[in-house]
């Protein structure tokens, strides 16, 4: 394991130099990326246009006669061309694209009574995305009305419901349907998908859009967790009617959800304990409200929002690539995160406990609102 030293704070000129490097790399990657995008679209659109001129029809209008199931679908109501498990971003995005090419012979199976997946399940205080909303949304369905740079759970959930309604997906979603088994039947060349224990459907294609973060996963290695006498709940199963006011509360974990919960609930509770096993790299989340002026600009000139999205995409891509391919950029980022820790936590003992022991990029980093980054009240290890 790599040892990361508790470096002294960097001089301001060095810090500014690092920030400049990051900005410069972002600008270069945005320019290169967007130019590449333009070339790609010019080539593909030209080919598309030539095809229409030569053959007189649109390639997108694929005929879906060949998508009938091997058995006569008109006689069997339990057969589909495709079954999709889950109605989160993945399931809904796929369904919208299927509708777009005229393929309606599919069904989304959702175990909850509402769509949205992660964004329906996670309703804890402070729940929000940590990728800017202009990017964390469907490219084909931009939303000029995001209230914040990083939208809150309820807004993202409403956005997904809006998409399902706009793209007529509701009739293709079967709610309260918990898939328990999928079995490929060779002689039928179909999947047999069992749900709610003994009911089943067949499909030629099966797509898993079941995601990992809509399930509350309880630890089984904490002694006494099952017999704990106080109230307890999981972040992915938050009891929204529960009042935390004046209570002694313990949060187990310091991951992406805890980091959003703690700053929110610390305003209400009497005493708060945060139990941390592994510290993570923290990056300040530069969140702010989107102004009415910006919203109007995005609404009247959607191409501007598309351009902003393109810039965000390439900036994020460069960061991710620097982790994947271990570019020196990640050292600069790590240095800045250390500086952030120094400026936020003055106590060297506490800072030591909060310094990750792994290199940046091995595990995804955590983002927290810059105005929320108060020192934790109590840290147990
Ligand atoms: C607080 C939070 C913030 C996040 N922020 C970001 C971010 O900024 N950027 C990012 O890229 N990602 C983020 N994520 C990750 C997020 O989970 C994904 O981006 C995305 O929402 C996953 O969508 P999905 O459709 O693949 O899965 P999910 O949204 O998890 O949906 C899966 C669906 O499948 C259903 N399902 C599962 N099993 C079954 C079954 N057996 N039968 C029937 N239905 C089933 C579930 O009920 C659920 O509705 C965040 C996650 C959380 C919790």
UniProtKB/TrEMBL annotation:
What Pfam families has UniProt attached to this entry? FMO-like
Recorded E.C. number(s)? 1.-.-.-
Query: Carries keyword Transmembrane?
Result: yes
Q: Where are the transmembrane segments?
A: 12-34, 80-98
Task: Identify the cofactor(s).
Answer: FAD
List each coiled-coil range. none
Concerning InterPro entries, the annotation shows:
FAD-bind_Monooxygenase_sf (IPR051209), FAD/NAD-bd_sf (IPR036188), Flavin_mOase-like (IPR020946)
Q: Which Gene3D superfamilies match?
A: FAD/NAD(P)-binding domain (3.50.50.60)
* Keywords annotated in UniProt: FAD, Flavoprotein, Membrane, Monooxygenase, Oxidoreductase, Transmembrane, Transmembrane helix
Kindly list the GO molecular function terms attached to this UniProt entry.
Answer: flavin adenine dinucleotide binding; N,N-dimethylaniline monooxygenase activity; NADP binding
Q: Which family does it belong to?
A: Belongs to the FAD-binding monooxygenase family. Belongs to the FMO family.
- Return the protein name: Flavin-containing monooxygenase
């Amino acid at each position: 394991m790599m040892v990361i030293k508790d470096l002294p704070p960097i001089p301001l000129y060095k810090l500014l130099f690092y920030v400049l490097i990051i900005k410069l790399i972002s600008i270069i990657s945005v320019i290169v990326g967007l130019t590449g995008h333009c070339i790609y679209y010019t080539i593909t659109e030209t080919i598309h246009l030539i095809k229409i001129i030569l053959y007189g029809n649109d390639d997108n209008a694929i005929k879906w006669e060949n998508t009938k199931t091997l058995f006569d679908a008109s006689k069997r109501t339990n057969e589909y061309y495709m079954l999709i498990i889950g109605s989160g971003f993945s399931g809904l995005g796929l369904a919208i694209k299927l509708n777009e090419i005229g393929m309606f012979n599919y069904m989304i199976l959702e175990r909850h009574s509402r769509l949205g997946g992660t964004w329906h399940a996670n309703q804890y205080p402070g729940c929000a995305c940590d990728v800017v909303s202009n990017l964390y949304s469907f490219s084909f369905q931009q939303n000029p009305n995001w209230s914040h740079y990083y939208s809150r759970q309820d807004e993202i959930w409403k956005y997904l419901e809006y998409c399902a309604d706009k793209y007529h997906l509701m009739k293709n979603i079967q709610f309260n349907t918990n898939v328990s088994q999928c079995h490929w039947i060779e002689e039928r060349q179909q999947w047999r998908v069992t749900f709610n224990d003994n009911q089943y459907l067949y499909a030629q294609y099966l797509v898993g859009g079941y995601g990992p973060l809509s399930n509350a996963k309880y630890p089984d290695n904490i002694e006494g967790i099952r017999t704990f006498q106080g109230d307890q709940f999981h972040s992915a199963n938050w009891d929204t009617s529960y009042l935390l006011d004046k209570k002694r509360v313990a949060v187990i974990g310091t991951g992406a959800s805890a980091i959003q919960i703690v700053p929110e609930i610390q305003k209400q509770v009497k005493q708060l304990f945060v139990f941390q096993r592994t510290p993570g790299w923290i990056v300040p989340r530069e969140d702010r409200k989107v102004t009415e002026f910006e919203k109007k600009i995005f609404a009247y000139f959607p191409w501007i929002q598309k351009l902003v999205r393109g810039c965000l995409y390439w900036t994020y891509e460069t960061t991710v690539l620097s982790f994947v391919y271990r570019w020196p950029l990640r050292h600069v980022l790590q240095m800045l995160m250390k500086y952030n820790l120094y400026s936020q936590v003055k106590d060297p003992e506490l800072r030591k406990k909060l310094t990750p022991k792994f290199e940046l990029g091995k595990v995804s980093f955590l983002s927290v609102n810059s105005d929320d980054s108060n020192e934790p009240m109590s840290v147990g290890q």
